[in-house]
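Input chain follows. Return structure tokens only.
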Amino acid sequence: MLEDYLEPDQISEVYRAYLFGAEAHDGQSRKTGEPYIYHPVAVARILAEMRMDPKSLIAALLHDVIEDTPTAKEQLTKKFGAEVAELVDGVSKLDTIEFESKVELQAENFRKMMMAMTRDIRVILVKLADRLHNMRTLKIMRPEKRRRIARETLDIYSPIANRLGMNKMRLELEELGFEAAYPLRHRVLEARMRSARGNRKEIVTKIERSIKERLKLEGLKGTVVGREKHLYGIYNKMRIKHLPFNEVMDVYAFRIIVDSVDMCYRILGAVHNLYKPVPGKFKDYIAIPKVNGYQSLHTVLFSPFGVPIEVQIRTEDMDKVAEAGIAAHWLYKSGDESGNNAQVRARQWLLDVLEIQQHAGNSMEFLENVKIDLFPDEVYVFSPKGDIMELPRGATAVDFAYSVHTDVGNQCVAVKIDRRLMPLRTELRNGQTVEIITSPTARPNPVWLNFVHTAKARTNIRHFLKNLQQDEATQLGERLLNRCLEEFGTSIKELPKKNTLHVLKSFKYKKLEYLLADVGLGNRMPIIMARLLAQGPDEELKAGVSKKSDDKRPLAIKGTEGTVVSYAKCCYPIPGDEILGLVTAGRGVVIHRENCNNVAEYKNKPEKWIDVSWEDNVEGEFSVVVRAIVLNQRGVLATIAATISDMDANIENVVMDERDGQHSTLTLTITVEDRKHLARIMRRLRHSDMVIRLSRSHK
């Protein structure tokens, strides 16, 4: 097999790797009872069938020597070079590191493999071949392990093969995974397929003959073959679309292979003349390839036998890429932008994976985000300049913004879809033109996490908000600590260095900023930390150093503290109200009104409270709840909404309850600047003949 495409010196190098691997695995055997070296040889054979380069074959032969034998990475580097050693290391597991759970270990293994893959894409090809051979020999495993490996294959490795355009490998992984994970369902479907084949054979032959005759009549050349759906595909369609077996099997599929792109479109016209096309079912993946580089024309036709016909039309090169993806016409060039469509798109995906890794909090989050990215059902939209952008189905305008650039996503404030302003949460559809409007002062909104669809958008939003909250918490923590340190006649800047270092060491903080952030988030009580900082490592607090508590200045609330200062939803405090601050772990400071019912239960826990007051010039808008008893008249809600809008306030929420036949209660959540602004709004509303009674909620 190797003689068909490798040079003699390359073959001898591969053979040298085989001898080294056989010696390293000497005495080891697989659960099947055969010598362990049989497995690496089988993996290398799978790659050789794909015509992979010699270094990939060597890495395949040696892929388990670091993990399962005493052989070290340095030894491989010395014998076969750094490139092969990096490939083998990328495929190896992390068995030497301890993790809290098996799930975390698997997630970290996956993260390590994906990172190695971003450096050298051959890592994943070796891993896929390794997984394929393991799946072929899976029956020897005990049932629960067999099901676990099969589910992992269906969840991770099969989608990766699909993402890289390796259709042939994907199909085999799916079939083997389906059989191992759901043996009973597999047997039932397989039996139904066998009985259905006999009934279909005559119809398939007739349709195939009529297509060939039409092509001959038109003077067009193409190879026509009937396509049989694979079991896992049938099972998924039945499960997702809730279809019975007969409806899934009532579709007849054919593939036509031609010699040029021009011929693809000519044959499309011929089959549309032969049978009527089903409206809305034509897809041109030649002009706009799939995200994994797949190209083909897809159409669905009405047949005279009363069943639909699926037809795929593609060139020979497209067919090879559809089957082998990035491994088609393999020529490895590190950092080179050449290669087939699948290879170029795979590189772009790996760059996105790298960005997801940089912004993911841990391995579990990384695995979750990459899994989201592995199941794209594409939608194609256009930028204002006419560039085509590919996004998964369900993607929103925010996903589009982040796909353009991270900065565009972070600064987006609005979107125009087909020249019309639309909400940022709008799901995009094929063929739309999307224009993102940005502002240099804008920043991501946490609400976006509820509707974004792509891993890139989700990780970037989380990363930005995490850093933003850290900065805000640090600033608030500094203000809280300085306020408490005033009792001891000092401040953070005036503290002796040894005092600060002693506290940081005692609580295992690497930097003062981390301590300040924890204080700001409510994870450390400011008065206790202030006392420890003022006391120092070897000093007693001197009597009389502390100022009288009456002299303490309250913490001034500016309205710009961000996520670390929040306003209680039980009493909705606004500037001008008498307020108290409750320090809550993980949330920072929660502001309540002094007369809030929920304050009472904390009256006996003074350590939880801090004195707060409003700044003279508070910025921002604050939510408040107003209840109105109104007459049941047409247009009452519109009149009240218009009045509130005229007073420069926004309505966040409205609930309307009917009290009796004549009256209703309106509960309005509106945003105001302060108590004076609210008083003006309520005064204007009371002038309306429709409003019987009006009050601010005091729940």
